[in-house]
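Ticket closed. Logging final result for NAD-dependent epimerase/dehydratase domain-containing protein.
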Amino acid sequence: MSDSLVFITGASGYIGTHLIGDVLKAGHRVRAAVRSEEKGQAIKDLYPSSSDRIEFAVVPDMSQASAYQNALKGVSYVFHLAGAMVDKGADLENDFVNPAVNGTLSILESAKKEASIQKVAIVSSFVSLMPLDAVMQKSFHIKANTNESFPVDLKMDFPEGLSGQFLKYQTGKIVGHQAYRDWINKQKPSFKVLSVHPSQVFGPSLVQNSASELSGVNFLMWMTLQSDGPPMTPYMMVDIRDVSHALARIIDADVPSGTELPITGPLYTWKQFANFVKSSYPALDVKFAPQEEPTMTMDITVTDKLLGVKWTPMEDTIRAFVEQQIALSK
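Final structure:
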């Protein structure tokens, strides 16, 4: 169905800016939730030929219960991408748990009040589908749609550094996903609701304009290449463009309500990553030399069946990522 109005939270972010392009390409209109008018204008500047099909709603605090009041009028499809980042914030509840829970419930409650809503997609993460700290078990296999609950302790002591930040992030995602499940079971909405669980997303960015703006998984990938230490996470990655394509396909796909859609790219390893970059870009003087080891995997059978995405070869993703960073470093 073309020319539907699609509402996107986190629209000015890494995934959101790609998704806007795919939604526009599919013939729909976009209403972007942004924190300021400046961010809204920046989105329009990315798509000048389609700026008349982009509008925005300023939502300063997306975790408030009334955050989306009136913002969903006339909307048919909702993509909720806004959420905490691993490297943003330090307080477990305020920076990770509350945004995940309150942001999700706020968009769902607002959608329930609008008769035009047909489908809501909540974008979570692969870490909400596994026990806390399972990411350190490098051969762990993730399955979706098992209805399994993973216990968390909001009072636990978290380690310092990146590992502690990641555990806080995962805790927020687990709690947020359970709140989403509970809401569906209790409210039984008339529209379809589903969740999307990407693995670590990397590739070319539409929002990075300088080397100093490198962030997220792209930062991790680039810094790892320059390190002679071990990798900080398992290699389970997916191309940003594939994530965006998969999300856009949800609009027309027949996905049963409550479905969890896991998303990850072709199986690859850190050693393959290092070897490919070294052979393709010898001038980078890559120090990273990991040993071959098992990597984490995720069953995406349901996603392949329902969305039919043609996944980008990992070498193509790496090439697009590395060449953007080289260009921005000049």
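The mean pLDDT is 92. No further action required.
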